[in-house]
Design brief:
Elements: E1 7-15, H1 21-31, E2 35-47, E3 50-56, H2 59-72, E4 77-80, H3 86-99, E5 111-113, H4 131-138, E6 144-145, H5 149-156, H6 163-174, E7 180-183, E8 193-199, E9 204-210, H7 220-233, H8 238-254
Parallel strand pairs: 1-2, 1-4, 4-5, 5-6, 6-7
Antiparallel strand pairs: 2-3, 7-8, 8-9
Helix pairs in contact: 1-7, 2-3, 3-4, 7-8
The structure holds adenosine-5'-diphosphate and the ligand Cc1ncc(COP(=O)(O)OP(=O)(O)O)c(N)n1.
Length: 276
């Protein structure tokens, strides 16, 4: 009999184009060898050119998906992505407490919070009044938060332009309650390297890598956060899961492909031809 793989749950929105959202999470979980499960929060109408709109899933259906899989199959690590509204954020936060996922719960199942606010085209994926709920309800429950620089600005008011302000942003985010933060540096386009900064307030790790010249980076944030979640599900500590996730996203950006008339997706396909 095939041994049962570790499990990872994504609580996220659907991207009809398949490059980001829960589709990116599931294909990354698969490529990393963990069994992926989903609690769908919203359905976006999205392609390589942007997000034309979205519709939220009723709150009781979102939470029922989480309890259904947690109670039966078990969750080794979880990740949140697009949560869309205050109501969904509040309900997800209390359901995570009930099923024992996240910081502060007894079971210590790790929770990665990717505080998704907008797509790379600038289309909103979070209602404007929901930012405060993300700050107060979700970030304190996070084992790791993984904002990009736009999300850092929204959450903390810190505008990151270099390594020094990236460190200040990490500190400001830690004050909102996550155990660890990863301030991603992909948006510092004038820097020849992509440096992501990991910190828990005591340890500070700079994860640097080459900046690939590609316009096709759709789903990059989701792919990185899911690869980290997969590592945590397999029992890695946060620093090891993040360095493994960084290696994963680097290859996925390097092998990103054009699809549609706009921005194509990063690709985890390279992993399928390799052993762990
Ligand atoms: N051109 C690139 N080459 C290599 N890595 C990249 C590139 N763009 C982004 N990354 C990496 O992809 C991940 C996600 O990046 P970022 O663009 O900052 O977040 P988001 O996709 O959430 O907007 C980070 O690890 C970042 O360093
Ligand atoms: C449904 C959905 N969720 C999240 C995102 C944003 O994903 P991300 O990985 O940050 O990728 P880009 O939007 O930067 O390509 C999304 N677009 N859709």
């Amino acid at each position: 009999m095939t041994p049962t793989p570790k499990t990872a749950l994504t609580i996220a929105g659907s991207d009809s184009g398949g490059g980001a959202g829960l589709q990116a999470d599931l294909r990354t979980f698969f490529a990393c060898g963990v069994h992926g499960m989903t609690a769908v929060t919203a359905v976006t109408v999205q392609n390589s050119l942007g997000v034309a709109g979205f519709s939220e899933i009723p709150v009781d259906v979102v939470t029922a998906q989480i309890t259904a899989v947690a109670g039966d199959m078990g969750v080794n690590a979880a990740k949140t992505g697009m949560l869309a509204t205050v109501e969904i954020i509040e309900a997800v936060a209390s359901t995570l407490d009930e099923v024992g996922i996240g910081r502060g719960t007894q079971s210590h199942v790790p929770l990665v919070v990717d505080p998704v606010a907008a797509s790379m085209h600038g289309d909103a994926l979070l209602r404007q009044d929901a930012l405060e709920a993300l700050r107060t309800e979700l970030l304190p429950r996070a084992t790791l938060a993984t904002p990009n620089l736009d999300e850092v600005l929204l959450l903390t008011g810190v505008r990151v332009s270099d390594g020094q302000s990236q460190r200040e942003a990490a500190q400001a985010l830690l004050e909102l309650g996550p155990q660890w933060v990863l301030v991603k540096g992909g948006h510092l386009v004038n820097s020849p390297r992509c440096v992501d900064l990991l910190s828990d307030g005591t340890h500070i790790v700079e994860l640097g890598g080459p900046r690939y010249e590609t316009e096709h980076t759709h789903g990059g944030g989701d792919t990185l956060a899911s690869a980290i979640t997969a590592g945590l599900a397999k029992g890695l500590g946060v620093p090891d899961a993040v360095s493994s996730g960084k290696r994963f996203i680097e290859r996925s950006v390097a092998e990103a492909y054009p699809l549609g008339a706009g921005v194509g997706p990063v690709s985890p396909f390279w992993r399928l031809s390799q052993s762990d």
